[in-house]
Design brief:
Length: 322
């Protein structure tokens, strides 16, 4: 059986998806990155080893904020940004989709699709108030498991308004509402609506959000956030079955497309041995010019296999004179 692997390495989670020729998901893996992306990639591969061993890997794709690192370790054939990967996955699930809302642990995205093409996008990587880490922090402060956060929000009859432009102000306002005696469910619902307002006022500012709307990313599992988006936008919002691994799914689909169109004849995938190799990343500052770029070296068993980080390609050449 021919299969395609997609890997999405983010700041909070590392996800893997294995597809067959018919685009059926054979295996999906969702792991916490925990600041150790190389370990997460190796662990993820060990979880799909039974499928890989019994199949022929035709192509591998990498995406996410750690896509360069993942691409070097895996020997990925296709390395694409998160916008492209999420758009491809969304259109695979709902071909007529026109808006993609994606909220992860540390950032959030909005992708505008028209006639099956991504025509515009926006990202928020500055403030945590519009991301999953904001909800994790507030849930911890309220003594709630994050898995129960959305259910509490749905129990609210009257949500309280909480400032959501800044995570610090939101927490201060939440404490203020608690001291006024507002119920837990109403406060949780208010936090969900605050996150949605923050997202729409920042990421969605000036964008035409039209249905069908897809909600992707780990936060899409929170039914309270979904309900808050539907209330604010006045449209139904669809959460795909594989919402938490859509980046990896899109990456696998891109790899499959590159192979089936002949762009990739033979994969560069390094194989399952990756999970047992000794990888290490080090950096140094280049002093050749005034830019003083920070260059990252990734080594496999003490041999440099990739470099990146420079404004020019000087250090990306792995010849002996470098």
């Amino acid at each position: 059986m021919n299969i395609y692997l997609g890997v999405d390495v983010g700041s909070v989670s590392t996800n893997l998806v294995a597809l067959d020729e018919e685009k059926t998901i054979l295996k999906r893996v969702y792991l916490r990155t925990r600041g150790r992306p190389i370990d997460a990639i190796q662990e993820g591969l060990s979880e799909v080893d039974s499928i890989v061993e019994e199949s022929d890997v035709k192509a591998v794709g990498a995406t996410g904020s750690g896509r360069t690192l993942a691409g070097a370790i895996l020997g990925a054939d296709v390395v694409k940004n998160e916008i492209t990967s999420h758009a491809v996955a969304a259109l695979n699930e709902v071909p007529e989709a026109r808006t993609v809302i994606e909220i992860g642990g540390q950032d959030s995205k909005l992708i505008i699709l028209r006639e099956g093409i991504a025509v515009d996008f926006a990202m928020n990587t500055v403030c945590a108030a519009g991301t999953g880490s904001f909800l994790d922090h507030q849930a911890s402060r309220l003594g709630l498991p994050i898995e129960e956060f959305g259910e509490h929000a749905l129990e609210s009859d009257t949500s309280v308004r909480i400032a959501g432009r800044c995570s610090v102000f939101a927490e201060s306002d939440m404490i203020h509402k608690q001291q006024f005696g507002h119920g837990l469910s109403d406060i949780v619902a208010g936090l969900c609506e605050a996150l949605v307002r923050n997202y729409l006022n920042n990421v969605g500012k000036g964008k035409e959000i039209l249905p069908p709307i897809l909600f992707q990313g780990g936060v899409a599992a929170n039914r309270g956030i979904k309900a808050a988006f539907e209330k604010t936008l006045g449209h139904s919002v669809t959460v795909p079955e594989y919402h938490d691994v859509m980046g990896a799914l899109g990456s696998a689909l891109l790899a499959r497309n590159a192979h089936t169109t002949g762009e990739i004849e033979e994969t560069s995938f390094r194989g399952l041995a990756i999970s047992s190799h000794d990888y290490e990343t080090r950096s140094f500052e280049c002093d050749v010019c005034a830019n003083r770029c920070e260059i990252a070296n990734i080594t496999l068993d003490d041999e440099i296999i990739a470099r990146w980080g420079g404004r020019c390609d000087r250090w990306e050449r792995l010849s002996a004179d470098n």
